[in-house]
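Continuing the series of single-chain predictions for the mutant panel. This is the parent chain; the variants come on the following pages.
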Amino acid sequence: MTRRNVWRRVFRSVEPVPGNRVRLLAGGADFFPALIAACDAARAEIHLETYIFNTDATAGAVCDALVRAARRGVRVRLLIDGIGARDFPADWRIRLEQAGAIVLVYRPLLAGWHFKPASLRRLHRKVAVIDASVAFVGGINLIDDHEPVRLPWPRLDFTVEVRGPLLADIHANVRRLWRLVALTQFKRPLPDASIEPAWPTDGHVRAAFVVRDNVAHRRDIERGYLAALALAQREIVIANAYFLPGRRFRTLLKKAAARGVRVRLLLQGHTDHPFFLAAARALYRDLLSAGVELHEHHLSELHAKVAVVDGQWATVGSSNIDPLSLLMAREANIVIDDTALASELLNRLEPAFATAPALDPDDWQRRPWPHRVLSWLAYGVVRGIVGLVGSGRWA
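Parent structure:
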């Protein structure tokens, strides 16, 4: 099978759109100035979706940019998650709404709230669309790179800036989600789009906007990963914050390693969810024995959700490789068919791999039995939660 035909099969479920300009943004140092500049240049409309909207100075600068835009007549629509942004300051919301912005909360927490499995269905995507001419899609929340804990390096995370024909899909999708949330909360629906999209068509990147929801796109992101893994010929590189894949995903990683593909995974070493890390480590022994290289990143918080396969296929987005992202949350990724961008992303990851030596399979085999038992107990609890939610197969 020729290389061209292989990648046609990888992209079979989601046809990439040609003619885009896509710029990789590494961390808040790249992302926040670009986002704020785009908001300050907005003429008609800003849609912003985020899981976390923190109370630090960096997030406050984004809030200020939204207020400035709303005051000059830009239609500002902010959609935040009811759990991730539960501490969003009331005075910030008042400032936004007094300026003319509209703020909606996805699945807000109610008084007297008690945990239910369905409450795990969150808005986890991080998407901004300005004037239907530029979009930002990735994994970066509205939070300073060094919050909530201070570590030597800033948080490792990525977003892409997209300009080009793919904006038609992204813009339509964010408007659709806004209308859905507004309808469930008895808010006034969006008027018909009065904005005239204007984007360049001379870009050289083929890309697709891939979402996960609970209706028509339940497994689109997962299928893209599985196809890329199955067809990999040389190298698979994955950096993912919460890595707890199901059986099919793990099997494809092991099969790839068995046929000579180099498989490298960059995973969390420092985590804000120790229980989840313990569950993920239950899978290490099996992967290491199959020849998969595992690296734990300790110098900063690893929050990235990115991958590169054969230096051609790449994805940047909000979706972790775990049951919460793949089966429950609303997620959004950009999938890219471009050697230059894939190479740039890989180069951005290499310093993190270099400072995180690969785990030794023999050392992992000798791990104390209490640690192994704790990991498997944590893994069992996670599987039990997935079963309670009733989301179907955990691939």
